[in-house]
Design goal:
Number of strands of chain B: 0
Helix content of chain A: over 70%
Largest interface: A-B, 80 and 64 residues
Structural class of chain A: mainly alpha
Largest sheet of chain A: none
Structural class of chain B: mainly alpha
Oligomer: heterodimer
Radius of gyration of chain A: 33 Å
Helix content of chain B: over 70%
Distance between the termini of chain A: 134 Å
Strand content of chain A: under 5%
Number of strands of chain A: 0
Distance between the termini of chain B: 107 Å
Chain lengths: 628, 785
């Protein structure tokens, strides 16, 4: 009787605690939820018979109203049966504790409590906590790198040839070492430890698992860890596995995207998704099990296009299709704006961003790109407004910091700008654009070495950032290290093969290292890609110049003529190149004794250095004399 | 004759702790200590092993070795319960309230005894002797006497042998015997159960006997002053060498060795009784007067000849004093750095009496034997084990798992399994330790650490596990735990070599080599036979690159500890560092003979052959090393470095693909290393994958900008890159052509009629882009600059 009473109380307290923990965490009162869950797990295990004994009305229960009893039981049942993701009762309690600890960001503790679980979902939870805890510690070290290691003064006196072992290089080494030390904490990186545990778990239990979300989550985690180990191919295959189990995990799609570094890989991936990829029907309900209907795949293709600028027609098609489903989805609009931005259509991009901001004013995602547009379009007042506005919304978002940094950069306050970029990076160390833009700022400050370091970080994180590669190329060009810069321009060019500037830079670089043949090829390619091939006097002149160097005077002359003709298209606008081309032609014709033409060319030279003008005049005089 | 005398004295020795049972109060605590609380009482073997047990007890409590001192502490702790219990359990209390004792007695058997007897009116002694827990209940002095008689009585063969000797030795004791005989008719050692139950009454004892009882009880309760006071009186009264011996025993126990020595030498007692001689030697060893001690025990075993014949017959279960003397001799030789003789003496001690674990332990723990010798010794002991009757298998297994793990792994495992399955010893310290040692030799430090922690949780300062634990912590770089452990040890065992070994290891981990060396040397001074400290001491020189010093230190270690291959291995490594490969090879071969499956050794041998340009051999050894660490977790330092070396061997052999694969595995599991990337870059350059080569070389340089090799390779690669033709095969062109088609569509889509996309109007905008694009281009270019 007495013990029955005790048991009854126990059950009651237990179910109430369970309920409170669940509800409190639903309404985000994390600490209260944590307290409840801890108390719940601190209670003794119920013997299995207990339930039966409580369901039989005992003496104590008789004192109570029978109604209440029924409610309690139904409450308990509803909790256990409806909301427990297939977990047993004790596992469910453990889950409650773990989730509340997770919400309070006590990752290590969470992992400790979950150390013996067998359920795949809980196992994921545990390993994910391990990973996050490691990540948190790494980030702590990262901050010190940012504040101490990245001091511009250190890098200014770096050996320009880059082959000496001087002190500043040691500083760089030192700035790199914490990053390494944190991964190799004692003697092996925690990532591989987690990975090992995960592997052994998968090896032992994968047979018993039906393809539920638990498996998908574990595969996802494995992908993340493999990616951290620079094993992208494997990582991709596991992301795909995870997605085929459970396609509605957008983060997983994004990770998959991150594994790609070259445009041709993206095409291969799309091909794979179209042809071989299949979805498990258990978790992907109804039509969503079909790869062509699955909305997530379509979203992914859209983003893939945004990142790698694939087939525009397909893109428009996808966008239209998705827009039918999600007419009010800010993300879609933002993607559209980003695409237009990538195609350098800043005007449209700006107006699209305007729409996004109007429809969802407190959405800060992607607004850093918006600020880039405003910066490039030199709309400083609007940029200032945006900076003010976003700071009010949330000062401590990397996006906000980037916007403010852009604002300061526009005001030529580069030091401050760098400070804000650094803050952005402290908040999110994987913010590529911040690294790249910070590199630009260092270039402005004529600190090429610091800039190079920034660009390097950017490409380390995201090898698809052509701006960072291009920046690297330029920075090395400033340092007269053309071999390096050539390589980086090649990289940038691989990413943006349709961008005239890339080819042009590449060509210039080839010319500088003395490989004229390739330089000519590159310039010709640039000319092909130029939208106004007839108006690009710079390329034309360079081409002509190169042909002269390899003694192909015919081609040289042809391009000189074309260069001069540019003036026709630009309504007589004279540039340095056209002037030089004219002078060259004048000399050329004079040599060929075509004095008439030489005279015409020479007279046209009205632009250039005084020396050139003098020379032109001399030729003109000479020619006139000869003609006469 | 001497032999016979000896055996009797063994009895005396084994009876000594028993004497406490004379006091009824002690009885319970002995039951707790006694190994067969639940076992069948009264059998002969029981009595024997209980005595054996208690002899070791006596030795450990008084043993001069600080490490055994710890074990002794534990014993003392368990014994020390008795004084408290004694109040509740004293016969007086029991007489009035038997139920209290019944409850307070921990042993079920004893409970049963109480219930059986039922009559609370009887003294506990009687009740127990009724339940035929015979000998232990009786004051030992009495029992000794009675047993001596029995020797004569029942067993004919023994009695014959005994007869002449007995006359000599028992003569002096006969006086006391009378009283004992009068009261105790009780025991026969040959019968399985005590059939005759003696009614026993203290009041019937003579006055001297009562005093002796008093003395023993005092000694057992460590009331040395009392024991000395009474013992002194007894000795003066009787002048009996036996009483002198007990007085000396009291002195020894209270740590006044010098007084014991004086007492024992003054009356020439050492020549009268071998027991006294043993005690004298023990005291002298404690006083570090080794020469004198050696004189006392003799330079070699005087009984060597006789031992062989008699040893087999004499199976009384106690440890033969002869064996103990041999052990003592070994100890003395060890203290005089005469390791060969010491080794021989220990071996002899074990061979004379297999029950002398102390000597066995000394042989194994101090690595005095090579693994092969160890296993040979076990073979030789085979016949000895048979004397242990029921416990034969178990003890054999227990000894087996103590042996070197380098050889006969299957046998060790077998023995372990047998112990776990048949004797239910799974959670026993020694079993766990053997497992930990196996893990350690396989370089599985994490598992080893786990087991060590399980052991240490139960027994925090287990001196046998601690060195293993400390080296695991070192391997795993757990400096925080080392710090805590060192402090704990230093607080509790300031005079122990392990303590300072731990401190030194901590300094090794935090890379304060100077300090580490100081403490290693302190540790090895405290215990010159402590191998890890010697090795650590040598390591400190090796780390600082002082090869000559390191070599001499390692050589000393190699001389001291032939049982471990590590000194030879490290010597080889040092010679390799000095580029004297022939010497290195010699030492490696020595180490290889001792332990052929150590991955570390195989790796070093591989490296050596690699350096000698014997690449195929190098490959073979490295592959074997990799095999040895196969089931090891692939992220451990050992396995990573083996993989690296193997990859380099492949590289030198020109097997580029395999080398690349190896390097890639290394990169997957280990932290990023500049040299690995550099090598990969080089290999890619060789296989003409220029892009990858450049990428990897860049990574190498970003990790370590001063990597000269990487710089040169990169320059070379970049020059190659320039001269590469931009033809159709160039990745750039391929890529750009891939996009050509898309580009056309891009252009055409601009010219396409506006697509109806009401709210976004995407295509319409695309059409508009024509104009602003140019301007935007320039802006963007500026942005880029």
């Amino acid at each position: 009787m007495n013990s029955d009473n005790q048991l009854y109380l126990l059950t009651d307290v237990k179910s109430n605690l369970r309920k409170s923990s669940l509800e409190l965490s639903q309404w985000k009162l994390h600490r209260s939820a944590k307290w409840s869950a801890e108390a719940l797990c601190g209670m003794p295990e119920m013997p299995p018979a207990t339930k039966a004994s409580t369901s039989i009305p005992t003496g104590m229960a008789d004192d109570e109203s029978p109604l209440r009893k029924r409610i309690d039981l139904s409450l308990q049942n509803s909790l256990v049966h409806h909301n427990n993701f297939g977990l047993s009762e004790s596992e469910y309690d453990l889950y409650l504790l773990a989730s509340s600890l997770f919400d309070c960001k006590e990752f290590d503790r969470c992992a400790y409590f979950l150390k013996d679980v067998t359920n795949p979902c809980l196992k994921f939870y545990k390993l994910y906590c391990d990973y996050l805890s490691w990540d948190k510690k790494v980030r702590g070290n990262m901050e010190s790198v940012l504040t101490t290691g990245k001091n511009p003064k250190q890098s200014t006196h770096r050996d320009p040839n880059g082959d000496g072992d001087n002190e500043s290089e040691k500083d760089f080494q030192a700035s790199n070492s914490p990053r390494m030390a944190s991964t190799g904490d004692s003697n092996q990186s925690p990532v591989s430890t987690i990975l090992r545990e995960l592997n052994s778990y998968l090896d032992t239990t994968v047979v018993h698992l039906n393809n539920g979300i638990g498996l998908a989550l574990l595969y996802y985690l494995k992908g993340i860890l493999l990616k951290l180990n620079d094993n992208r191919a494997h990582a991709m295959s596991f992301f795909l596995k995870s997605l085929s189990c459970y396609s509605f995990n957008w983060a997983c799609w994004l990770e998959l995207l991150d594994c790609l570094s070259r445009p041709d890989e993206s095409l291969l991936l799309i091909k794979y998704l179209d042809q071989k990829f299949c979805l498990e029907p258990t978790e992907n309900l109804g039509s969503q099990a079909d790869t062509h209907q699955n909305i997530m795949i379509r979203f992914f293709k859209l983003v893939l296009f945004q990142e790698f600028s694939g087939n525009t027609y397909d893109f428009a098609h996808e966008l239209e299709y998705l827009h039918g489903f999600f007419p009010n989805f800010a993300y879609l609009k933002a993607q559209n704006a980003l695409i237009t931005y990538n195609y350098m259509d800043y005007l449209n991009s700006e107006s699209l961003f305007n729409e996004v901001v109007k429809s969802d004013p407190y959405r800060l995602d992607d607004l850093d790109t918006y600020s880039n547009i405003l910066y490039v379009m030199q709309k400083h007042s609007k940029l200032a407004y945006l900076a003010q506005f976003t700071s009010q919304v949330d000062k401590f978002r990397p996006e906000t910091c980037c916007i403010v940094a852009n604002y300061y950069s526009a005001r030529q306050e580069h030091e401050k700008s760098i400070m804000y970029f650094r803050r952005a990076l402290t908040l999110n160390k994987n913010c590529t654009s911040a690294w790249t833009l910070m590199g630009h700022e260092f270039v402005e400050l004529k600190n090429s070495h610091a800039a190079i370091e920034c660009y390097r970080r950017a490409v380390d994180i995201n090898a698809r950032d052509f701006k960072a590669w291009y920046g690297l190329g330029q920075a090395y060009e400033v340092l007269d290290m053309h071999l390096y810069s050539l390589y980086y321009f090649q990289k940038a060019c691989t990413l943006k093969p349709l961008d005239r500037r890339m080819w042009q830079a590449l060509a210039a670089c080839y010319a500088k290292v003395g490989n004229r043949q390739e330089a000519i090829k590159c310039y010709e390619r640039a000319l092909q890609l130029s939208l106004h091939a007839d108006q690009d006097s710079v390329i034309l002149y360079r081409l002509a110049d190169l042909y002269e160097q390899i003694h192909e005077l015919d081609s040289c002359k042809e391009f000189m003529v074309r260069c001069v003709e540019v003036e026709k298209f630009t309504e007589g606008l004279v540039t340095d190149e056209t002037a030089k081309a004219r002078l060259w032609l004048a000399k050329y014709e004079a040599k060929r004794k075509n004095f008439e033409e030489a005279y015409n060319y020479a007279v046209g030279v009205s632009h250039g250095t005084s020396q050139e003008i003098e020379e032109a005049r001399a030729i003109a005089r000479e020619c006139r004399r000869r003609i006469q | 004759m001497c032999q016979l005398n000896l055996s009797r004295i063994v009895w005396v020795l084994s009876n000594q702790p028993m004497s406490t049972h004379g006091t009824p109060t002690q009885h319970n605590s002995t039951l707790v200590i006694s190994p067969f609380i639940t076992g069948n009482a009264g059998s002969k073997s029981n009595a024997n092993s209980s005595q054996a047990n208690q002899v070791t007890d006596g030795q450990t409590t008084t043993g001069p070795d600080p490490r055994t001192e710890e074990a002794g502490n534990n014993w003392r702790e368990s014994i020390s319960h008795s004084p408290y219990q004694s109040i509740a359990n004293s016969p007086l209390v029991q007489k009035t309230n038997p139920s209290v004792t019944a409850a307070s007695l921990a042993t079920p058997y004893h409970n049963a005894a109480q219930n059986d007897t039922g009559n609370g009116g009887n003294g506990i002694l009687t009740s127990i002797s009724k339940n035929s827990l015979f000998g232990s209940t009786i004051p030992s002095t009495l029992r000794k006497v009675s047993l001596q008689r029995e020797y004569k009585d029942p067993t004919g063969g023994d009695a014959n042998n005994d007869a002449p000797a007995d006359g000599g030795s028992a003569a002096g004791e006969s006086g006391n015997n009378q009283d004992g005989m009068a009261t105790t008719t009780l025991t026969t050692t040959t019968t399985t159960t005590a059939t005759t139950v003696a009614e026993f009454d203290i009041s019937e004892l003579s006055s001297i006997e009562k005093l002796r009882l008093w003395r023993h009880d005092a000694l057992m309760q460590h009331l040395y002053k009392t024991a000395e006071f009474i013992g002194n009186k007894i000795y003066t009264m009787t002048g009996d060498p036996n009483d002198a011996f007990w007085l000396a025993q009291v002195f020894y126990s209270s740590g006044a060795c010098i007084r014991a020595v004086e007492l024992l030498t003054k009356d020439m007692l050492d020549s009268v009784s071998i027991m006294c001689r043993y005690l004298l030697a023990l005291c002298l060893v404690d006083l570090q007067r080794y020469e004198e001690a050696l004189d006392v025990v003799g330079e070699s075993n005087p009984f060597y000849e006789a031992a062989d014949q008699d040893a087999k017959k004499q199976n009384d279960g106690g440890i033969k004093l002869e064996s103990s003397l041999c052990y003592l001799r070994g100890k003395i030789y060890a203290a005089q750095n005469n390791f060969n003789k010491s080794k021989e003496s220990y071996k002899e001690a074990v061979l004379v009496d297999v029950k002398n674990y102390e000597a066995f332990e000394e042989l194994i723990a101090k690595n005095l034997l090579t693994p092969k010798e160890e296993w040979d010794l076990l073979e030789a002991l085979e016949s000895e084990f048979s004397l242990l009757d029921d416990n034969q298998e178990m003890v054999k297994c227990l000894y087996t798992i103590r042996l070197s793990k380098y050889l006969n792994e299957d046998k060790t495992l077998d023995a372990r399994r047998q112990l776990i399955e048949e004797h239910n010893l799974e959670s026993n310290v020694d079993i766990l330790r053997s497992q930990a040692e196996i893990y350690c030799t396989q370089c599985k430090f994490t598992q080893c650490l786990e087991i060590c922690e399980i052991i240490l949780e139960r027994d925090e300062f287990n001196g046998e596990v601690l060195p293993l634990y400390i080296s695991c912590l070192y391997e795993l770089g757990a400096k925080n735990k080392l710090f805590l452990l060192s402090h704990k040890l230093a607080e509790n065992f300031a005079k122990n070599s392990i303590t300072w070994f731990s401190v030194a290891t901590y300094y090794m981990v935090v890379e304060k080599i100077e300090e580490a060396r100081k403490y290693f040397s302190k540790s090895s001074i405290l215990d010159p036979n402590f191998a890890p400290a010697w090795l650590g001491f040598a390591h400190t020189y090796a780390i600082e690159g002082e090869q000559d010093q390191a070599i001499s230190a390692y050589s000393t270690a190699a001389r001291f500890f032939p049982g471990i291959h590590l000194p030879n291995l490290f010597l080889g490594m040092q010679y390799m560092a000095l580029n004297t490969f022939s010497l290195a090879e010699e030492y490696f071969t020595l180490a290889y003979d001792t332990c052929p499956q150590d991955p570390l050794l195989l790796n070093e041998m591989g490296v050596m052959y690699f350096k000698r340009n014997d690449l195929h051999k190098a490959k073979r050894y490295l592959k074997r090393a990799l095999e040895a660490v196969k089931e090891l977790n692939p992220t451990s330092r050992t396995s990573v470095s083996i993989q690296m070396n193997l990859a380099h061997a492949y590289r030198r052999l020109g097997e580029n693909e395999r080398a690349i694969k190896c390097f890639k595995t290394v990169l997957e599991v280990s932290s990023k290393d500049s040299d690995t990337y550099c090598s990969l870059g080089f290999l890619y350059l060789k296989t003409k994958e220029l892009q990858r080569a450049i990428d990897h070389l860049h990574t190498a340089l970003s990790l370590k900008p001063s990597n000269l090799a990487a710089q040169e390779l990169l320059l070379h690669a970049l020059e190659l890159n320039v001269s590469m033709n931009l033809d159709a095969d160039h990745p750039l062109i391929v890529n750009s052509q891939l996009y050509e088609s898309n580009f056309d569509q891009f252009i055409s889509s601009r010219k396409r009629a506006p697509r109806t996309l009401d709210s976004v109007g995407y295509a319409k905008r695309m059409r508009k882009t024509h104009g602003p694009l140019q301007m935007a281009n320039d802006d963007d270019a500026m942005d880029l600059e």
